[in-house]
Amino acid sequence: MTQNIYDNENFFEQYAQLKRSTYGLSGAPEWPSIVKILPDLKGLNIVDLGCGYGWFCRYAQENGAKHMLGLDISERMLSKAKELSVDSTIVYRLEDLEQLELSPNTYDLAYSSLTLHYIERLSQLLKTIYQSLKSGGHFIFSSEHPIYTAPMEPGWSVAKDGRKSWPINNYQTEGRRVTDWLVKGVVKQHRTLGTYLNMLIKQGFIIKHVEEWGPTRQEIIENPSLDEEIERPMILLVSIQKPDRK
Fold it and tell me: Are the CB atoms for 113 and 56 separated by under 8 Å?
């Protein structure tokens, strides 16, 4: 079972203070890049894997999606999502993605934001997603970039001139990472970039877009705290598609 850190009271309270929690999609700096790779959502059946507060579910509904299924392991997250959602086209369900079962050939789009790096049995989840997609269906996801998840003891090294460097030791050593983020003991799974891509290829997906996200100069001007993100990619964005057999 995936660690359910989001139902930790202290973690949840601190998570609620983040910009992406208080401002939704507009508070996520990578969101403009995600919008560019989304298909037209009108009339689609969509599943959101790790839906959190349900921000994407509501965005899809507002942009014409036919039906949204939001899945999350956290009861606190789902409670907040239900509180913010009033439309009957959105259904939220408590699920451990490690054990997920979905109806085959059901969804036009699977979406996941910053969730896959928590999943140990990722190959099985990808198989489930692939089978659940209709012919020609899309899967778009973000995850923490492998360079970000690599070190056993993550943290910036700062040179005398103030230049920051991110350690990438243990990059080739895949597996469990225990880090301190908001609280101590958050469990994540590190994989190399090659492992991610080869998992997708082996499953049968067509890779459409891969982006090692970083802020633009204008975004740094508007939000100076993003300046350190140019030193290493924190987020990986991927768009893949199930082959169209029609």
Answer: yes
**Its pTM surpasses 0.70:** yes
Task: Kindly report, residue by residue over 131-179, the tens digit of the pLDDT.
Answer: 999 999 999 999 999 999 999 988 889 888 888 899 999 999 999 999 8
Q: For residue 162, what is the DSSP state?
A: S
- Look at the block and give the residue holding tokens 């059901």: 106
Compute how many other C-beta atoms are within 10 angstroms of the C-beta atom of residue 64: 11
Would you put residue 2 in left (φ > 0), alpha (ψ -120 to 50) or beta? beta
CATH code, residues 9-242: 3.40.50.150
Higher pLDDT, 173 or 185: 173
Cα separation of 81 and 78, whole Å?
5
CA–CA separation, 127 and 143 (whole Å): 18
What residues does each domain of the chain span?
9-242
Q: Look up residue 125 and give its two tokens.
A: 């989840």
Residue 190: CB atoms within 10 Å:
22
SS3 125: helix
